Amino acid sequence: MTKPRILQVGSLAGSPSANARLADTYDVFELWKHEDRARALAEHAQDITVLVTSANMGANAELIDALPSLKAICSWGVGFETIALDAARERGVQVSNTPDVLTDCVADLAWGLMIAGARRMSLGDRFVREGKWGQVHGSIPLGTRVSGKKLGIIGLGRIGEAIARRGQGFDMEVRYHNRRQRDDVPYGYEASLVELARWSDFLVVATVGGPGTRHLVDQQVIEALGPKGLIVNIARGPVIDEAALVAALQAGKLGGAALDVFEHEPKVPDALKQHDDTVLLPHIGSATYETRLAMENLMLDNVKAYFETGKVITPVE
């Protein structure tokens, strides 16, 4: 039996076996292996109905327009700001992502970053590795207690809510800022992001990315968090004005930053790398075997569901 044909934008190297499983089931047109993408699409795009991509690679309007038979975009990852949703909707193209399956691991990492930043774990790790323990008078500067403090969350979606629930286990008071107030949660709502930052000891960024949230956390918000505050970002790098963040750290106007994402990945400012009050990770929020496999399974289930029923399982609303 002839395999259904799909287009794969790029290698899903971050997933345990996605590339192999796609190739076993489908006739995969591997777009990333063609230097002249426009020519390759012109020659091979006519019969492709399903496009597979990731949150990092996305699918822009030009690519969607080049696929006249396209009916579904199945993305590996929860973010969809790199997919031209308006262009897809105009064409009636379904778009799916992989929500829920990565919620707990990303929330866990947010808490790991928070504790690491508050307790200066990166600085302590370097202190030991560099042989300074026992060789230098004193030790690293004192950290900050996490339990019992005030936790502010920007974006109370699936991941933000999971972070908030964990905060209750640390006896923290939790407030959040959202596009709209929720009536189904026990946490305090703050309409002003600046006021949320001013109230918080720890401010976690868990909102969606995209043009609508670019530099949502600006100089005013950062400085409102203050010289004892810690900001954590497990969402998307451009949500924080990185230049303003660096300036505030250097001026002593922000206590610290614990970041899994950056504005111009994989580039990270040297000022962040060299600062003692930062914790820096290479965008690994979902990077556990269990979660990556669950993302892979859901992406494959979406592709299969489209070919069998004409509908994806987890459409982006």
From TrEMBL:
GO terms for molecular function: glyoxylate reductase (NADPH) activity; hydroxypyruvate reductase [NAD(P)H] activity; NAD binding. GO terms for cellular component: cytosol. The keyword Amino-acid biosynthesis does not apply. Residues 20-316 form the D-isomer specific 2-hydroxyacid dehydrogenase catalytic domain. The keyword Metal-binding does not apply. Pfam families: 2-Hacid_dh, 2-Hacid_dh_C. Residues 112-285 form the D-isomer specific 2-hydroxyacid dehydrogenase NAD-binding domain. Keywords: NAD, NADP, Oxidoreductase. InterPro entries: D-isomer_2-hydroxyacid_DH, D-isomer_2_OHA_DH_cat_dom, D-isomer_DH_CS1, D-isomer_DH_NAD-bd, NAD(P)-bd_dom_sf. Belongs to the D-isomer specific 2-hydroxyacid dehydrogenase family. This is Hydroxyacid dehydrogenase. It comes from Bordetella genomosp. 13. The lineage of its organism: Bacteria, Pseudomonadati, Pseudomonadota, Betaproteobacteria, Burkholderiales.
